[in-house]
Design goal:
The protein is α+β, with helices and mostly antiparallel strands and 458 residues long. It has helices at residues 3-15, 18-28, 39-56, 125-146, 168-174, 222-225, 232-243, 262-269, 287-292, 335-345, 370-383, 399-405, 431-452; strands spanning 60-64, 74-79, 87-93, 114-116, 119-121, 152-158, 183-186, 198-200, 202-203, 205-214, 220-221, 296-303, 313-314, 317-326, 352-360, 363-364, 388-390, 410-412, 428-430. Helix content is 34%, strand content 20%. Helix 1 (3-15) packs antiparallel against helix 13 and helix 2 (18-28) packs across helix 4. The chain starts with a helix and ends in a 6-residue tail after the last helix.
Length: 458
């Protein structure tokens, strides 16, 4: 089948409603990995939903137990042609966040696909079901039409990403020989701008921690003891102010990266500015540099007393949950020790720090890597648009598992956009992005196959 016919067939999958029908079946499965979830739905997504689709296209599938107790199962699909051909490793996650039906607007339900114009509503539409569905079908349609791809494929699907990819590192480490490949290409996260394809080459790391000031076991009357007893909320507020200034600029020296190099600045230079507060963040950086090239500190939650029913009392305890999003060029192992040193030096020894969960490691493939040029050229050839290239996503993904454990160049091609509502109510995907996305992926797969046979531009 010709290149042009293959692209047309891929877009017909969207235009004739097949993508919407397939996505509706995937969304109907309440594959929640968080507190609302039931484990049987996680397994059923693999055995009854995505697994049979992969089998229909000729992929062999194996389902594995999570190597950690209580972890969700994983699926590995494989398609093999020849040892001499390149191997592509792909990834997706079939689990979703809590449905939270009470937060969705009238007429929408988390596990029922509803189309309104260009929008496809439902939990998991954007994150991540439509994204791996597009990639699976793009491969499958080429296999149906041509009987081959010209390269080998391995597809890893996990069911615990929304709980921090629990057990994924251990699984990939144990299966690193079975998952060996030449390049990693996957889809998750948002485009930088809805109308232009994006590729990102890694992700910011993230570490979350609690800060607590505990001065006494009980609250004390603010009239009888005000001015006599230290207020833990005020102390904690000043401690936080020592970490970041009034415009959010990081003040811990060890938290400042050394990786905003000229090539990274050049990659970010032409990006349109995302939504931003002009007087927030690093004053000498552009908005794209702040989110893709720098570190940011956030307070996720704070507590002292009861905000719903405040009493005239000085609380005995104040606490806050902080988070640092960090890029390559930050010593992850020194983030919390350096915070301890910083707080001690500023007189806040009473602030206790404890890490929450496992951190995500920062990763970044150099923008000049040959696979980056290959993918960008392929996208431009297919849709006549040059994609935005982000050195890393602003958010965090388990990308280091593929970049470091498997040693692969990593390229992510998202099929969603920033305002999709993921992790919140009214989550949705855009049909227009899906249509362009399946065309982009089909073009990339065709070009990899032709490159492997020596018939194309690479």
């Amino acid at each position: 089948m010709s290149h042009e016919t293959s692209l047309k067939r891929a877009m017909e999958y969207v235009d004739k409603g097949a993508l919407t029908r397939d996505l509706a079946r995937l969304v109907a499965r309440p594959s929640v990995s968080q507190s609302e979830g039931e484990p049987e739905h996680l397994r059923a997504y693999l055995t009854e939903d995505i697994g049979p689709l992969l089998n229909r296209y000729g992929f062999a599938t194996d389902i594995y137990e999570n190597p950690l107790p209580g972890g969700a199962p994983l699926l590995v699909a494989s398609y093999f042609e020849k040892d001499s051909l390149p191997t592509l490793l792909m990834y997706g996650h079939g689990d979703v966040c809590n449905g939270e039906q009470h937060r969705w607007r009238d007429g929408l339900r988390p596990f029922e696909l509803v189309q309104e114009g260009d929008r496809l509503y439902g939990r998991g539409t954007a994150d991540n079901k439509i994204q791996h569905l597009i990639n699976v079908v793009a491969l499958g349609l080429l296999l149906e039409a041509n009987g081959k791809l010209g390269f080998n494929v391995k597809f890893l699907l996990e069911m615990g990403e929304e709980k921090g990819s629990y057990g994924l590192r251990e699984f990939v480490t144990a299966k690193r020989h079975e998952l060996a490949a030449d390049v990693f290409i996957a889809s998750d996260g948002p485009r930088h701008a809805p109308a232009t394809p994006t590729i990102f080459l890694g992700s910011r790391g993230a570490i979350t921690f609690e800060m607590v000031v505990r001065l006494r076991d009980s609250d004390c009357h603010s009239g009888n003891f005000g001015g006599l007893l230290a207020d833990p909320a005020i102390i904690l507020g000043h401690a936080i102010a020592s970490i970041a200034d009034a415009r959010g600029q990081v003040r811990v020296p060890e938290w400042l990266p050394n990786s905003l190099t000229d090539d990274i600045r050049e990659a970010l230079r032409a990006l349109p500015h995302p939504l931003n507060d002009p007087d927030w963040g690093e004053a000498n950086l552009t908005p794209p540099e702040r989110v893709y090239g720098w570190n940011s500190f956030s307070i996720l939650a704070m507590s002292s007393g009861s905000i719903g029913a405040p009493q005239s009392a000085i609380s005995g305890t104040a606490s806050a949950i902080g988070q640092l999003r960090f890029v390559v060029g930050t010593d992850m192992e020194d983030i919390l020790p350096s915070l301890r040193r910083h707080l001690d030096a500023h007189g806040f020894r009473m602030v206790k720090i404890s890490q929450i969960g496992e951190p995500f490691k920062a990763t970044r493939l150099p923008p000049g890597h040959p696979w980056v040029h290959f993918v960008c050229d392929s996208i431009e050839k297919t849709i006549q648009k040059r994609p935005h290239v982000l050195p890393n996503l602003g958010g965090s993904l388990p990308n280091d598992i593929f970049a470091d454990v498997l040693g692969l160049p990593t390229i992510w091609i998202p099929h969603s956009y920033a305002d999709c509502g993921q992790h919140g109510p009214d989550e949705h995907a855009l049909l227009s992005i899906a249509r362009e996305g399946i065309k982009v992926m089909t073009g990339i797969f065709l070009d990899i196959g032709e490159c492997a046979s020596g018939r194309t531009f690479c």
